[in-house]
Amino acid sequence: MNPTLTEIIRDGLWNNNPGLVQLLGLCPLLAISGTVVNAIGLGIATTLTLLLSNVLVSLIRDHARPEIRIPVYVLIIASIVTAIELAMNAWFHGLYLILGIFIPLIVTNCAIIGRAEAFASRNPVPRAALDGLMMGLGFTGVLIALGALREVVGQGTLLDNAHLLFGEWGHALRIELFPSDSGFLLALLPPGAFMAMGLLIALKNWIDIRLEARAVRVTEPTPSPAESPGN
Amino acid sequence: MRFRTESSPHIIPRHSVGGVMRQVLLALVPGTLAMTWFFGWGVLVNVVLAVLFAVALEATMVALRRRPVMATLSDNSAIVAAWLFALAVPPLTPVWVTLIGIAFAIIVAKHLYGGLGYNPFNPAMVGYVVVLISFPREMALWPAPETLPQMPLGLWQTLQTVLTGSLPAGMDWDAITRATPLDAVREGLVSGRTVSELTRSPVFGTFSETGWEWVGNFFLLGGLYLLFRRIIGWQIPLAVILGVAVPAGFFWMLDPDQFASPAFHVFSGAVILGAFFIATDPVSASTTPLGRLFYGAGIGLLIFVIRTWGGYPDAVAFAVLLMNMVAPTLDHLTRPRVYGHPRGGGPPPGDGPRTPNA
Prior knowledge:
heterodimer; A: mainly alpha; two-stranded antiparallel sheet; 2 strands; 65% helix; B: mainly alpha
């Protein structure tokens, strides 16, 4: 049975989130989430790639022979990523230099080939596009949450270097919460990324358990006072 | 006649967990007092603060996990972890660093993994490594053992320094702190001087700097007490010390100008404390006799390697954590032969159908 459009949206953003549930694409997720701006930059690039690759893969889904479909998908994804890389180099050069190798590495992000293979190759274009967009936004959301957490704990700021993304007025976005020389260095180092990721996954699971418990309580209504004896 | 039958276990251990930990705490006292003598009140202040934080956090975590609070607290393991942490950090460490380290030790390294008995890593060392790599500046402020008597910080001044993170007026960090002997030798070798040149300076005693080697001796005393009471086995401490001394001795004989002597390595930094008190943690260490020898030797070798070629002057915490990862495999590979069974497990020879060749 095909998922409804609401289900596609909910899957991408929460239930089947690439970062928190599928745990795909952890390499850029953990390496680039040091600051919010880096996270937004990589998130946008990944979302665009997901959207375009899902559309293209869905378009050729009846023509690509099953034996060679994976190399074809990889070629499509690589072409899209190359285009995005060139675009970022042209318009967001500072950010491009910071993200470095992790932009070309989007090609190997298994969240993208995973969606191409599992969803886009079996669904019509509009649905595939919606799925790509929602998965990308879900991934970006996790990146930004992780980036905010690590940036605040690690160097005491939020939206540092925002001018790389938004132009000159971005300097005004920088929020300094405490002087950065006493930051918690571990949060900026790779082990801190793993720990923060673990905490985010734990938080997601905890919210799910709470929601489930509430749903059970709603579907099994307790006897109302009017019906209970002695009233 | 009726024999009374009991179900297993038939051999009841002589020590409860709380009792073992009490003995460890007792054995830590002489070394802690020696450290206080050489490095000032800060050592005791750190121990008290760390223990208070640890007990409070342990109680909170146990309550959150809906376990019996008093029964868990009475195993004293949080106190031991906090005490070891407090000995590892410099005596004038600001209070918030201690709090972060203890929080990581108790919450992340211990209770997120399931509490005492389930933690794969030594909690005290996890806490120490977290603050060591996060706050390198604060972790380098070791007071010099011989300058402290010249301008001693009183108990009240020490408490102020620890709580506010800044020294009383008229004092300067540069005046009262200096490189530890391991730091000094490391920096000296990098800048092209020889070991004999470095150790000729008057602050060095027989093997290492006077204060440091005496602290080591008193921890050794406590460690021998633990050995004597059979709280710890002889394998890990011996293997750690040999694991440091043998490679250190080898390289020292090759080139005594570039490599410090094995005695310097053993009596500097935290090797003695680590060998007897940290590496022997019953939860995260290897449990088989042979496995303990490999485990200890691995820690010793890693300490020497990281000290000599690594990025940090001392390495006991890193070595212990790295070998903690190996401990389950070591246990698996060095299972002792169970009486009546062939080596490596399997059914006893008399059991079941025999193969013709057996």
